[in-house]
Amino acid sequence: MGALTLGLVGSVTPAFAATTPAQVATGFSGTAYGSYIFNTDKTLTSGPTANSAISCTGATGKTSTNTAAALTVPAVGNVGAATTSVKTLLTATGKRIESKSTIDGTKLLGGLVTAGVITSESSADKGTTGAFSGTNKTTIADLKVLGVTVGANPGANTVLDLSVPLVGSVGKITLNGQEKRLVNGGYQVSTTALRVEVLKAGLAGIPVGTDIRLGVSTANHTPAQSGYFAGGGFSTKAILANGLLNSGPTALAYVRCGGGTTSANVAGVNIPGLATAGAASTTTNGVLTPQPKSTVTNTIAGLNVLNGLIQADAIKAETSATLAAGATTATVTDTSTFTNLRIKGLPAINANVAPNTVVQVAGLGQVTLHKVSKSSTAIIVTMIDVVISQPIGALPTGSRIQIGYSNSGVGL
After folding, report:
1. Is residue 207 within 8 Å of 368, Cβ to Cβ?
2. Which of 112, 174, 193, 347 has its CA 20 to 30 A from that of 101?
3. Residue 64 near residue 52, CB atoms below 8 Å
């Protein structure tokens, strides 16, 4: 699929009033990651690894990069080290966002699928006339499927049957997955270099619904506006020491790039063998007037970690970010609180515990209370952040648990 150019309906700008590239009005949003491996039953989630992202900005000259070491996912296979990048830039004819993902080889499903370096690239342009265009590119070195060599430059959206000897077809493989589309006045380009979907039983240790995505890049133009929002919140998340998710984010909601309200609610929370809580909810809100403001509120009732080791009647993680007219630095607020927080063996803890308070909890590990980080345009709060010092249930030493997360951001 070649480059696609789509013109916006409207009047044509006269030649004597030509727009310069710097004056092209647009927003940017893009991501790139190495691998994302998950099951529909949520028993396995790995990634997105080496995630790079630029979200909700109108500024050029922005760059996001990331790397991740090689990883082994039980029963699925090995994925090489990943390098990713996303950047926004000014061109001679307009504005562009580019994203790229590179993986240093892979061996999946006991060798049914093997490859050398895998690269995915996506770019989206907006020209001075308002026309959009985009490109997708995938290269996969030394690709073999069931021992058969496949060319390094597969055609767009090439689909191969995933057939296992003595079993038959169990799924499909999509190479160089591409998409370009106009959505609500914006333009989206995405590329997935290699995707494996297990649709039938027959692979040992691999449940039906397993989805393996390698080399993913997206590049989007969003409608221009006076401010852009970012962030989100969740109640609990547990990450194994090897980077796999043991328990995915609960009550997860994101701030919409263009503003508005979103929410997510759960009746109860359970991280097996570790923690339980009552009702939890996350609400996000973004408003443009009288000035751009993003707010994220997460609440949790009745937390209990390891049969009373850590308890709280309620937790609120609440942040906001506001951008005044003409400002380049946002004003951020943190109104997060604990209600009746108790940690076994430690004295009573004030509801408004000082930010970034670190304590060692016997039988658990290092606990950071009211963890706060800030940038010029955003604030992140995690009310309880635990790095465990000994195996607990399915969580090995070095695993991490986050409870009460709020992230608010706003920018140009």
Report:
1. no
2. 112
3. yes
Low-confidence stretches of the chain (pLDDT beneath 50) = 1-17
Please tell me the predicted confidence (pLDDT) of residue 306. Answer: 87
Residue ending a domain, among 176, 194, 222, is 222
What pLDDT sits at residue 272?
A: 78
What pLDDT score does 360 carry? 92
pLDDT in tens, 172-213: 999 999 999 999 889 999 999 999 999 998 888 888 999 999
Q: Which SS3 state, helix, strand or coil, does residue 212 take?
A: strand
259 & 346 share domain: yes
| Residues 391, 363 within the same domain | yes
304-343 in b/e burial notation, b at 16+ Cβ within 10 A? ebbeebbbbebbbbbbbbbbeeeeeebebebebbbeebbb
> Of the candidates 181, 199, 222, which is a domain's last residue?
222
**Long-range Cβ pairs for the range 308-311 (8 Å, 24+):** 308/344, 309/343, 309/344, 309/361, 309/363, 309/364, 310/341, 310/342, 310/343, 310/344, 310/361, 310/364, 310/367, 310/384, 311/340, 311/341, 311/342
- Tell me which residue range forms the domain holding 360: 228-411
Residue 360: both structure tokens together = 């060692």
CB–CB of 391/306 below 8 Å? Answer: no
Tell me, yes or no, whether 217 and 234 share the same domain: no
CA dist list (Å): 170 to 1, 37, 174, 201: 28, 17, 14, 6
Beta pairing partners, 108: 77, 113
Residues 276 and 378 in one domain: yes
Within this chain, do residues 281 and 148 fall inside the same structural domain, yes or no? no
pLDDT at 11: 30
Q: Global pTM?
A: 0.75
Domain count, the chain: 2
Q: What is the pLDDT of residues 260-287, one digit of tens each?
A: 999 999 898 888 778 899 999 999 999 9
Going by the DSSP 8-state scheme, the letter that residue 236 receives in this structure is E
Give the DSSP per-residue string, 308-319: TTEEEEEEEEEE
CB 311 within 8 A of CB 301: no
Question: For 147-185, what is the HEC assignment?
Answer: CEEECCCCCCCEEEEEEECCCEEEEEEEEEEEEEEEECC
